[in-house]
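Board notes, transcribed. Complex of a protein with adenosine-5'-diphosphate.
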Amino acid sequence: MNNSQILNQVRLFAQQKMQSDQTGHGFDHILRVVKNASYILEHENQPADPTITLAAAYLHDIADDKLVADPQQSEQQLQQFLTKIGFSAEQGEQILLITHNISFSKSLEKSLSLPFSGQIVQDADRLDAIGAIGIVRAVYYGGAHQETIYDPMIAPRREFSKAAYRDLTQETIINHFHEKLLKLAKMMNTATAKRLARHRQQFMLDFLAEFQAEWQGRK
Ligand code: ADP
Ligand code: NI
């Protein structure tokens, strides 16, 4: 198989695994992340292996411990699948290293230095959490988890432990912007993603200002 045939197989595999997701990690998210990753690849001076980068983008949420009961088993399956379609063991490990380490909560736990291809996928994923799409995803997620829209009595959390992050009883959709989404623009690794994030950041700030004004009864 050539590289584009391999990526085709990866796309089909990801589609089949993500089809029924209700958490904002559906296949539409995956396709946007792949698009973002390929844009970043094209616009960065430093080279990264496009097949590894795009395969990792397609697969980055498959073994997420928020989504599957047994992430280790999912990773083993993934490794087997990657070798079956023609990646070497070393390439498979590179892809798994990326998919294993890019999520936000993990990047808070340890400051692991990702290879450049992984930094691209991380940026591509973070770009999809901000801007207009980011706003809709937060509302969608909050609705699915019975979160309140907003409560001025609940202050945004400063400490961002994984356990607190998962306790949604004290979470509001608006607080999620302050706790996570507004921080992402600064955390981008690549110059290309930093540039794209600037506009999306401003859009979220404008949205939050409008929200406050309407909440306070501006007519
Ligand atoms: P990832 O694993 O891709 O880093 P998450 O699983 O944390 O992302 O989140 C998936 C989507 O749901 C993102 O767009 C994120 O902003 C949103 N989201 C996550 N947690 C919350 C929350 N407590 N309230 C509102 N939206 C959330
Ligand atoms: Ni993702």
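The pocket of adenosine-5'-diphosphate (ligand 1) is lined by residues 24, 64, 66, 103-104, 125, 129, 134, 137-138, 141-142, 147, 168, 171, 173, 176, 181 (CB under 6 Å). The two ends are 62 Å apart (CA to CA).
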